[in-house]
Amino acid sequence: MKRLLLATALAAILGAAGSASAADMVFSSWGGTTQDAQKAAWADTFTAETGINVVQDGPTDYGKIKAMVEAGNVTWDVVDVEGDYAVQAGKAGLLEKLDFSIIDKSKLDPRFVTDYSVGSFYYSFVIGCNKDAAGTCPKSWADLFDTAKFPGKRAFYKWSAPGVIEAALLADGVAADKLYPLDLDRAFKKLDTIKADIVWWDGGAASQQLLASGEAPFGSFWNGRLTALAATGVTVETSWDQNITAADALVVPKGTKNKEAAMKFIANATSAKPQAEFAAVTGYAPINLGSPEMMAADVRKTLPDMQAASQVNADMTYWAEHRDEIGKRWYDWQAK
């Protein structure tokens, strides 16, 4: 769900281990309100329980993880990454296997558990609309790709990741259970029909600004960002029709010097109460199966796991296997 920062100077890795002391561990995530919520719900409670200080760092950078591991100088102990990257990095030998004698995976959503990762939270790409700016709001992916019925700019996620390709295929009539393997030719042909009307967002804050200002009165958004925007007074309409789920994951880079602390941190972060507290603040769904019963009913109804009727699960394994191939095609298409 975010910008993949691939270019990283090795010198910066070798010279900057942050301000962490030997008694600290380091958690890296994507910054902003999401990491603030992770700190409050996960890191602060972990420190209170164990006495281990959790230094916050970021943003997550896949090039930096690779360089750290290859240099044998790993300064990030737990990292929040995209689900498909977690699968790919595990296979590439960049991650530690998780210790499931410490982390209780029996309580976690099995969709988001691998030998090298567990879910951090999961979210949906949904259709969002500023009703005051748009007047009439699109309800389906087909609507969002219909520039005659819904003229004007529309917002989409800029980076190569699960979500936009699937939306294009669904808009073109592909059945949800027939999405994979992704028909890239068909997807890009459909995307060509709206390319001139797309405004790209590269992060959650940018997506909110586009919608709130009316520059792009509708588009594809992370559900939690719409929940947060609505709370500020913007008249937001959300369509969950064929909402496309994806997940972030928690991983431990290979060679961490704080492996046991990292496993304990993940065990706490994925336990029921911290997951429920994080979900209540962010609007993203918990991956602990015991968290929903701890949440207020009015909060629960706004989360992706309550919108399963027409939900489309992005295939993280497929994306991991084809990540580089799809990325090359995506950025070549954007540049044309």
Q: Count structural domains.
A: 2
Main beta sheet strand tally, sense and closure: 9 strands, mixed
Contiguous helical run count:
14
CATH class of the largest domain: Alpha Beta
The average pLDDT score comes to 92
Report the uncertain regions: 2-19
**What is the overall shape?**
globular
Number of strands: 9
Strand content: 15-25%
The CATH superfamily of the largest domain turns out to be Periplasmic binding protein-like II
Secondary-structure-derived class: alpha/beta
Provide the CATH topology of the largest domain.
Answer: D-Maltodextrin-Binding Protein, domain 2
Helix percentage range = 25-40%
Question: If you had to describe this structure to a student in words, what would you say it looks like?
Answer:
- With 336 residues, this protein is of the alpha/beta class.
- It has two domains: 10-122 and 247-309, D-Maltodextrin-Binding Protein, domain 2; 124-245 and 314-335, Periplasmic binding protein-like II (D-Maltodextrin-Binding Protein, domain 2, 3-Layer(aba) Sandwich).
- The chain is 40% helix and 18% strand.
- It is built from 14 helices and nine strands.
- Strands 1, 2, 3, 4, 5, 6, 7, 8 and 9 form a nine-stranded mixed sheet that branches.
- α2 crosses α11 (259-269), α2 (32-50) packs antiparallel against α12 (272-282) and α7 packs across α8.
- It is globular.
- The relative contact order is 0.19.
- Mean pLDDT is 92; it is low at 2-19.
